[in-house]
Design brief:
Layout (H helix, E strand, L loop, with lengths): L6 E5 L14 H13 L4 E2 L5 E8 L2 E8 L7 H11 L6 E7 L7 E5 L7 H10 L5 E6 L9 H4 L6 H24 L1 H8 L3
Parallel strand pairs: 1-4, 1-5, 5-7
Antiparallel strand pairs: 2-3, 3-4, 6-7
Length: 193
């Protein structure tokens, strides 16, 4: 790896205004925050079914992207972007919601299973493996017996929304730390809190 390849940071979510404030769109929210940091705006990519913006984040060359497909079909756009920008898998970061992490917590890892997350399952299948980096935005477990599939498509609660902007910025900070300091150092910072 020469270091000349960009980082590809992909946020997962569902397109359209009816999904904009849902837990499943936490990845899109973090990518919007990162786009603000690079001073860019998302535009439709000319060859891949995704919106993308290129720029520099903490001195690193990045392509920020949001698939325009639904969550369950994220793999095609992610593979298309990775191929188009010639990004090695170790420079691919996927930002997504995570049920098994308490609301507001951010966790980072490389590889692993999809844990029932259909967006990750689609990406892993399209890439032929799951050894990419992940920034996991905790949304917590659903209350009572609510179906997790229903829960992630609901908006954040009023109490959660009070902290949402802060949590989104914290997850964006985690992406920056991952790009500039590496996985272990970023985990030391973000897993401690």
């Amino acid at each position: 790896m020469t270091g000349s390849e960009p980082w590809l940071v992909v946020g997962l979510g569902n397109p359209g205004p009816s999904y904009a404030g849902t837990r499943h769109n936490a990845g899109f929210m973090v990518l919007d925050a990162l786009a603000g940091r690079v001073g860019g705006r998302f535009k439709a990519h000319r060859r891949v079914h995704a919106e993308a913006v290129e720029g520099r984040l903490a001195g690193e060359r990045v392509v920020l992207a949001k698939p325009r497909s639904f969550m369950n079909d994220s793999g095609g756009p992610v593979k298309g972007l990775r191929d188009f920008f010639k990004v090695p898998v170790e420079r691919l970061v996927v930002v997504h919601d995570e049920l098994d992490i308490p609301y507001g917590a951010v966790r980072l890892k490389q590889g692993g299973g999809d844990n029932g997350h259909n967006g990750l399952r689609s990406i892993t299948k399209s890439l032929g493996g799951g050894n990419y980096l992940r920034v996991r935005f905790g949304v917590g477990r659903p209350p009572g017996r609510m179906d997790p599939a229903v829960y992630v498509l609901k908006d954040f609660s009023a109490a959660e929304r009070k902290e949402l902007d802060l949590n989104v910025e914290r997850a964006a900070d985690a992406v920056e730390a991952l790009l500039t300091r590496g996985l272990a150092a970023a985990q030391n910072v973000f897993h401690a809190s």
